[in-house]
Design a protein that fits this description.
The chain is built from 16 helices and eleven strands. The chain is of the alpha/beta class and 488 residues long. The chain has a seven-stranded mixed sheet with strand order 1-7-6-5-4-2-3, with helices on both faces. A four-stranded antiparallel sheet has the order 8-9-11-10. Helix 4 runs antiparallel to helix 14, helix 5 runs parallel beside helix 14 and helix 9 runs parallel beside helix 10. The radius of gyration is 25 Å and the shape is globular. Bound molecules: pyridoxal-5'-phosphate. Pyridoxal-5'-phosphate binds next to helix 6.
């Protein structure tokens, strides 16, 4: 890394020295300044309108058509961060951010990300950086314990955990392992066309869109994903699942994969995992549990009921990058049978062969994911867990849950509002009694103030507002201010 503060910015650009080193960069100085910039940004985050107000195309209109031929001063670059980038940023870490699900972050996590970039490690194989693999295996075992997950997900058992970029990728890996298990590991070799029974997958009508996307990517065909009806509380109807699986089996198809949601995206509905597991077992189908957001609640023993039936699950994923102060991206994914996953995804070319892999005693995480390369993401997860401790993370969840309850109570006491599918966690779904236009106008009015940002969904075809509490610094005053905006 260049560290030459007194070198001319023209160094390395002499036309007579075509092999000159790249322009020196005063990493120490600019790095310190960047930490100051980020700290100031986070300290003053409430000054910004939560949602960016730029028009489409504005950011690009501010950028030159061509890249610079000569390197520019770092001051000029940072000035453009302030002038061009910042206005185009929606402030996800703002305590007034209530949209979607959170993507909360923290100082230890940012530093973990920074250190990962500084080390610049490619952790595709154990041998390409043993610490990258072993820290990940160890922290994933910790996290499984912290969440109260069953022992079969531990690396000391037949299973194990791996950090994926997203829940979408985790589900894709589960799906591919399930496909291979169902075809006797011949699907990857021969393709699916030549195989007997049609493979059919199941998820509720409330399942995240990533499930269908994964089915498409895996070449299984969206027509082979059955959308199972839900009960009054929007959780999957297990009787309907059983009937659909039986009908498919009777038609000569092979029910092979089912996703149960623990905390649906729209309303936090929790599918009945024990009954779904029974239905899956009857057909030998792989059960994947998608707990992308709500799964983090099980850090707290009092919320562990959401883990019911997990001892039957073949795989499970949850996103510390949503609700555990680990910045995006960090999805935690566990499988019961790591051999199925590795057999489905492993291709070993000569140029990756090495003595450690040949012993069969090490984990090569490239075989647990779609890409080959991988960052040292375990650092940020490890830093967060060590800095906050289990009790600090439990307090965060409890605080968010209590704040959501505070808003829920306020809306429940106002006869103009109705709560929609109320749940006891950190998401509040509600609507004004009346038509959709009133609700759309309410959301637009609140978001236009720049003092809060919330998003919506549709439930039974009706427009529903969602307040998802999860920003790192959210306090009662932010919830009360939001309540004032909504009830004005
Ligand atoms: N599953 C559920 C239940 C979600 O709520 C989401 C995102 O909100 C996802 C999956 C997709 O998450 P990711 O962005 O990690 O792929």
């Amino acid at each position: 890394m260049g560290n030459h503060p007194h070198q001319s910015t023209r160094d390395g650009h002499d036309a007579k020295t075509p092999m000159a080193a790249p322009q020196a960069f005063d990493f120490r100085k600019h790095g310190h300044a960047m930490v100051e910039w980020i700290a100031d940004y986070l300290d003053g985050i409430e000054r910004h309108p939560v949602q960016s107000t730029v028009e489409p195309g504005w950011v690009r209109s501010q950028l030159p058509a061509a890249p610079p031929t000569e390197g520019e001063s770092w001051d000029a670059v940072m000035a453009d961060v302030d002038r061009i980038v910042l206005p185009g940023v929606t402030h996800w870490q703002s305590p007034n951010f209530f949209a979607y699900f959170p993507a909360n972050s923290s100082g230890p996590s940012i530093l973990g990300e920074f250190l990962s970039a500084g080390l610049g490690v490619q952790g595709m194989l154990w041998s390409t950086s043993p610490a990258c693999t072993e820290l990940e295996t160890h922290v994933m075992d910790w996290l499984a314990g912290m969440l109260g997950l069953p022992a079969h997900f531990l690396s000391s058992s037949t299973g194990g955990g791996v950090i994926q970029d997203t829940a979408s990728s985790a589900t894709l890996c589960a799906l591919i392992a399930a496909r291979e298990r169902a075809t006797g590991f011949a699907g990857a070799r021969d393709g699916l066309q030549s195989h007997g029974p049609r493979l059919v997958a199941y998820a509720s009508t409330q399942a995240h869109s990533s499930i269908e996307k994964d089915i498409r990517i895996a070449g299984l065909g969206a027509a082979n994903l059955r959308m199972v009806p839900v009960r009054a509380d929007r959780s999957m109807d297990p009787a309907a699942l059983r009937a659909m699986m039986a009908a498919d089996a009777a038609a000569g198809h092979r029910p092979f994969f089912c996703v149960a949601a623990v905390g649906s995206t729209s309303t936090h509905a929790v599918d009945p995992v024990p009954e779904i597991a029974e239905a899956c077992a009857a057909h030998g189908a792989w059960l994947h549990v998608d707990a992308a957001h709500l799964g983090i609640a099980s850090l707290c023993p009092e919320f562990r009921a959401i883990n019911a039936g997990m001892e039957q699950a073949d795989s499970y994923c949850v996103n510390p990058h949503k609700w555990m102060l680990v910045n995006f991206d960090c999805d935690a994914f566990w499988v019961r049978d790591r051999a199925a996953l590795v057999q489905a995804l492993s291709v070993l070319p000569e140029y990756l062969r090495n003595a450690a892999t040949d012993t069969g005693k090490v984990i090569d995480y490239r075989d647990w994911q779609v890409p080959l390369g991988r960052r040292f993401r375990a650092l940020k997860l490890w830093f967060v867990i060590r800095h906050f401790g289990v009790s600090g993370l439990q307090s965060l969840v409890r605080r968010h849950v209590a704040l959501a309850a505070r808003l829920r109570d306020r809306l429940a006491a106002d006869p103009r509002f109705e709560l929609v599918d109320p749940t006891p966690w950190s998401l509040v779904c509600f609507r004004l009694r009346g038509d959709d236009a009133h609700n759309e106008a309410l959301m637009a009015r609140v978001n236009a103030t720049g003092r809060a940002f919330l998003s919506h969904t549709k439930v039974d075809g009706r427009f529903v507002l969602r307040v998802s509490v999860g920003a790192p610094g959210v306090e009662e005053r932010h919830i009360d201010a939001l309540g004032d905006l909504l009830c004005a």
